[in-house]
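Good morning C.,

I know you're traveling, so I'll keep this short. The sequence:
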Amino acid sequence: MKNITPALFVSHGSPMNAIAENAYTQDLNKIGKSLIDVEAILVISAHWQTRGLSVTASEHLSTYHDFGGFPNELFEKQYPVKGALNLIPEIEKLINEPIHKDYKRGLDHGAWSMLLHLFPNANIPVLQLSLDMNKSFEDHFLLAQKLIPLREQKILILLSGNVTHNFSNADFQNIDAQPISWAAKFDELVENSFLNNTPETLIKIDKSSNLFKMNHPTDDHFLPLIYLAGLRTQNDSVNFPHVSWQHATMSMRHIMLN
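The tokens, ready to paste straight into the viewer:
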């Protein structure tokens, strides 16, 4: 049996998590230390949506501060890292569809705000692949399955979104507010889908669960979960290296396949 690198979904939450020091960030650091023998990282984040697939193509990736209204300390954060350009031809071969090479695009906060806790030395090359919003949930799942061979090449595939992502009902005055019942139910639904290995639950969730739109008014932060489901192999186990809540509606659950 071939050695296979874990695949990891992280709930990234507010950009302020980039500069926080708490149990959430400590667990990210622990996860990073456990991910030994990683030679490159492929990131798929909720915050890069395109029509058609795109990939970062610069040798050195800039740090996008793609948000507003936060303290200067956050805007001063940088994650200078080399681009894993050697992955591009391999990805093109695996998925066999056109990919636009974006030579200006840097890492969005869904990517770098997690990477700086996982791999603070920024010593592992990174490539980011966009979310093609022309694709259906099933299309995203099938694309993820095509990427499985990358896990056999010491490549960590990092999916960044949120298990739940409702801002309208969030309690931004209290980061430790107890989760709203419908958010907790959706988080449990996602947890059980991975525990029971039922990816069809996630693929059809927008049509089968009235909880979906309550927790995901837009699809972007949910789609990385579908990629994680698609990356699963028959030998993978699933674990949850961090579970917590922020602002009553945001599950900060991480999910790892290994």
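Safe travels,
E.
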